[in-house]
Write a structure and sequence with these properties.
2 copies of one chain form a homodimer.
Chain A (H helix, E strand, L loop, with lengths): L8 H9 L4 H11 L2 E2 H7 L5 H13 L3 E6 L5 E6 L7 H27 L2
Antiparallel strand pairs in A: 1-3, 2-3
Chain A binds a DNA duplex (20 and 20 nucleotides) through helix 3 and helix 4.
InterPro entries (chains A, B): ArsR-like_HTH, HTH_HxlR, WH-like_DNA-bd_sf, WH_DNA-bd_sf
Keywords (chains A, B): DNA-binding, Transcription, Transcription regulation
Organism (chains A, B): Alkalicoccus daliensis
Chain lengths: 117, 117
DNA sequence: CGGGATCCCCCGCGATACTG
DNA sequence: CAGTATCGCGGGGGATCCCG
């Protein structure tokens, strides 16, 4: 059976999570619920407005998050995880757990290499 | 609480899966077991030797796959998933399942948009 | 306040050629 | 057979400035 990246279903999920700030945004919204643009930005020091906007747009495009605009001055925009988006939570949690363990794995590996040197 | 990409545990796992051919390589080795370099290359039309080598090296670096060289002419190199690497299987399966469903989700969404137009 | 528009840089990835 | 070495591009991501 021939394999191509475009046909790999895993990529469908991966493509949504990939993006420098996407996992952070998703974990934050999953924990904290609905948040304003400025709250998101404040919680992520280092991110630019352009990047935050872009990542949010891409997640919205995939129906993972919802964007609600309140027509008022000054503007108010709120973001939250959609029902559908919550189906990603088990995957994110699994990756978080695996990632935490993997950090330990690397440290252990380095120590083993020191012993044998 | 301040969030930074470098501190996100999810990234630890994500970084390992990210790479154009990595999910395919992992799924293939998980299904088929041990495979030679040439078998891997043949099963993935479109991949170059350089890329296959690079992706394999990166996975090996993280202890996800094992590389065994047989000192003979012509050369023979076999790759397989490590015990540790198998801990990624649940995540890959979850992403595969989610990704499959997400493809359907997009199709449904497009049809809904056609109706309302 | 919550963006959009521009410019720029880095690096993942591909094509090609060479090697023990 | 299973790799390295070199060259080049396209796109993700950052910095900066402007807008209703």
């Amino acid at each position: 059976m021939e394999k191509k990246p475009e046909n790999c279903r895993v990529e469908n999920a991966l493509g949504i999570l990939v993006g420098k700030w996407k996992p952070i945004i998703l974990l934050y919204l999953l924990q904290e619920g609905t948040k304003r643009f400025s709250e998101l930005k404040r919680s992520m020091p280092g991110i630019t407005q352009k990047m935050l906007t872009k990542q949010l747009r891409e997640l919205e495009e995939e129906d993972i998050i919802e964007r609600v605009v309140y027509p008022q001055v000054p503007p108010k925009v709120e973001y939250s995880i959609t029902e559908y988006g919550r189906s990603l939570e088990p995957i994110l949690e699994a990756m978080h757990e695996w990632g935490t363990n993997h950090a330990l794995h690397k440290v252990t590996k380095e120590k083993d290499q020191q012993k044998s040197s």
